Amino acid sequence: MLFEQLDLQLSAGEILQIAGKNGAGKSSLLRILTGLSEPEDGAVFYRNVTLSQSADDYADDLCFIGHLAGVQPQLTALENLSFWRACFALKPADDWALLATVGLAGLEDIPCQQLSAGQQRRVSLARLWLTPAKIWILDEPFTALDQSAIRALTALIASHCSQGGAVLLTSHQAVDIPGYQVRQYMLEYRW
Amino acid sequence: MSHVVIFRATLRRELKLLARQKADWVNPLLFFIIILTLFPLGVGAKPNLLREIAPGVIWIAALLSVLLGAERQFRQDYRDGVLEQLVAARAPLLGYSLAKITAGWLGSGLPLILVSPLLILFLGLSTDALLAVVLTLLLGTPLLSLLSALGAALTLSADKGGILLALVILPLYIPLLIFASSAVEQASFGLGYQAQLAVLAAMLCVALALVPIAVQKALKLNVG
User: Fold this and answer.
1) End-to-end alpha carbon distance in chain A
2) Dihedral over alpha carbons A157, A103, B18, B67 (to 10 degrees)
3) Nearest C-alpha in B relative to A127
4) Which single residue of A71, A178, B96, B136 has CA 20 to 30 Å from B200?
5) Does A53 touch chain B (CB under 8 A)?
6) Does residue A87 sit at the B interface (CB-CB below 8 Å)?
7) Distance CA B223, CA B10 (A)
């Protein structure tokens, strides 16, 4: 059993950080909250309806970026973006301008496997600029990012929350979102 | 998002990958060519014997070469987390699966059909038999691709999926092998083989209707 008697609530405009040691079950918790895994006991509610009943509504409002980046390494950043556009409902935008925003100007046409870990992370996070989803669930979004990328991401999270969005993320470092109080939930490590 | 949109996007993406990773379709093709060229050398100067066993040899070579690339079909998207994100977003996986299967056939089935007329020369088959080989490959390789996609999807999260995959789908290949090589054999005797072709076509239709749905369910199961 990884955790029990867990009671979490996330409201609009809120940022919740799940913290805890390696192996405490942060990623497993996120998988349950995204509907990828089923909890052994208990339930996840979205707008007072269980996930199994509101699955489609929930999936429409959810943007999940896990600790696996979801970037196909042989394709370029542009090609990955155009594939996501077909798979997820994304806002129309100029992909070149977007990639410049996330600091990948000049690297649009290079297969992602030739990019550094941090740059690949930027490609995967570029989806956040395009998604109309209200709830973002991000597993270790700041890993491998440099200071400027972290600043851009925290600014994006802040603007998302000011528009009534909600963000749930895991991170080992303290998360500092300008103008926002980040609520922290500590998962205890047990075995 | 509709199935058609994701089908088109996935197919375009897979074709780009085929163009970039040539080993994915060159290796199975080379394997097929190597078996068919080595066989006459191994059997020796016995043209009658060679002609008799040719139907079986061609089909076993085709079957194994499709099996060769089968394991990789969904593996990379699974490892990179692409499938995880698709399942979490409840994206239409049916379109995705169908596109993957189509690309799989374009990469491992179609090249075999294109080179098979050349290879028949090595085995001393008649022109009637040659036509039968091409026709059975046309009906049979899509079926091979469908079944191997099913095996790949079922064994996706298994650690050493390769052997398991072979064990799961080889039994399903057997009816195809029997009818296809029997058609080629009939043709080499100058007899009709419409019945075998009809059975192959029927198997293909059933698989085409059912396998993509099963693949989609298996993918969800393995990711969730």
Assistant:
1) 7
2) -50
3) B85
4) B96
5) no
6) yes
7) 18
Q: Is A146 helix (H, G, I), strand (E, B) or coil?
A: coil
Query: What is the per-residue pLDDT across A45-81, written as a single tens digit (0 to 9) for each?
Result: 998 888 888 888 888 899 999 888 889 999 999 999 9
Contact B88 A56 (CB under 8 A): no
ipTM of the complex: 0.90
Q: What is the pTM of this model?
A: 0.91
What fold is seen in the domain A15-187? Rossmann fold (3.40.50)
Give counts: helices (H), strands (E), chain A: 6, 7
The chain B residue lying nearest A74, using CA atoms, is B17
CB contact under 8 A, B16 and A69: no
Residue ranges of E strands in A66-148: 135-139
pLDDT digits (tens, 9 = 90+) for B26-51: 999 999 999 999 988 988 888 888 88
Per-domain residue ranges for chain A?
Answer: 15-187
Residue A174 has pLDDT above 80, yes or no: yes
CB contact under 8 A, A56 and B20: no
pLDDT digits 0-9 by tens, A91-114: 888 889 999 989 899 999 999 999
| Number of domains chain B contains | 1
- Distance from C-alpha of A140 to C-alpha of A14, rounded to nearest angstrom: 18
Distance from CA of A189 to the nearest CA of B (A): 24
> Which residue range is the domain that position B219 belongs to?
3-223
Total beta-carbon pairs less than 8 A apart between chain A and chain B: 81
